[in-house]
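ok, trying the design again with the full structure, not the truncated one.
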């Protein structure tokens, strides 16, 4: 479900390992707020439109700017065509101009103007309107950095509401596992849907979009029947095509785009079935986040670092931990 991260950036000062001590530090230079897709469904559901051609998101601000975007050739407004992608020539285009990130996880059910502004060292009247929260927080803290998190290939809500775009097995059943209901990663309709959500967040004032669940189930690709049968021959080619088109389309709006990498994909790329190619991810995503802990995060940080060819490596890997804090420039506590 939806979650928010509220993050603080501390320049030139090492944090103590225990988060209890950390929260007593008063100097706040930067705040980061994250919201994932499920929260957006409840906050932005009025913009979801179902037609005979499938599902789409229609935001008034996007409709007003549609002609301008078309004239300018904005890739986030162009029709997404999914086809087998040659990724051999893709070069690094992300990872520049980043800063440290130190974040605290806040459950989405606690999101309100009062709560967010209180944590951000400010207090205003309460509301649960995401756009209003973003606007007020930005106004109160000029140096705030906002990050919106979007779940891509796992979405039980959309899998049920838009069965055509759900991931189906060769037997015709919609695929669900412990993660939830899966979306077909070859569906151009659903790629456009995620791009629309990322675009709306960028227009609200978010500075970075974190893509989660950009992966294939850990099941052989030959067990599934995809919407686009020509999109790829295996999980890796399918996910490479997905992250390339979605990340670059959203980044064209002037926001940073990051992704969560699985631990097995990071530490043993040849042994994973998720389809995540970390080299490709680091080429098109500004940061790689990873669920780990304060003791073992270095394994994944070092594994990712060999793929970081541009930008500051210290700011491009972000461990998501609980308990003790890692001794690194970037981390997210909780989640």
């Amino acid at each position: 479900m939806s979650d928010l991260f509220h993050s603080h950036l501390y320049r030139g000062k090492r944090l103590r390992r225990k988060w209890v001590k950390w929260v007593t530090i008063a100097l706040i230079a930067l705040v980061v707020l994250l919201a994932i897709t499920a929260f957006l469904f409840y906050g932005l559901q009025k913009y979801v439109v179902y037609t005979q051609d499938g599902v789409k998101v229609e935001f008034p601000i996007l409709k007003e700017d549609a002609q301008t975007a078309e004239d300018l050739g904005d890739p986030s407004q162009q029709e997404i065509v999914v086809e087998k992608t040659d990724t051999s020539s893709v070069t690094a285009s992300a990872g520049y101009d980043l800063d440290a990130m130190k974040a605290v996880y806040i459950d989405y059910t606690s999101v309100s103007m009062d709560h967010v502004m209180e944590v951000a060292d400010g207090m205003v009247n309460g509301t649960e309107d995401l756009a209003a929260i973003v606007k007020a927080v930005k106004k109160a803290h000029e140096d705030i950095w906002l990050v919106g998190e979007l779940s891509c290939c796992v979405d039980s809500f959309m899998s049920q509401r838009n069965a055509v775009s759900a991931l189906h097995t060769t037997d015709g059943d919609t695929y669900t596992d412990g993660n939830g209901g899966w979306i077909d990663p070859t569906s151009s309709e659903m790629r456009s849907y995620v791009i629309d959500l990322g675009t709306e967040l960028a227009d609200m004032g978010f500075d970075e979009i974190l893509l989660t669940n950009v992966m294939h189930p850990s099941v052989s690709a030959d067990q599934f029947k995809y919407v686009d049968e020509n999109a790829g021959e295996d999980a890796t080619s399918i996910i490479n095509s997905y992250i390339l088109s979605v990340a670059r389309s959203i980044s064209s709006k002037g926001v940073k785009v990051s992704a969560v990498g699985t631990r097995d994909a990071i530490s043993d790329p040849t042994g994973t079935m998720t389809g995540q190619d970390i080299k490709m991810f680091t080429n098109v995503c500004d940061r790689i986040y990873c669920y780990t802990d304060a003791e073992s995060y270095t394994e994944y940080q070092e594994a990712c670092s060999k793929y970081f060819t541009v930008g500051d490596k210290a700011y491009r890997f972000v461990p998501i931990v609980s308990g003790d804090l890692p001794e690194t420039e970037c981390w997210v506590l909780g989640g």
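Keeping the full-length input from now on. The chain is about 30% helix and 20% strand.
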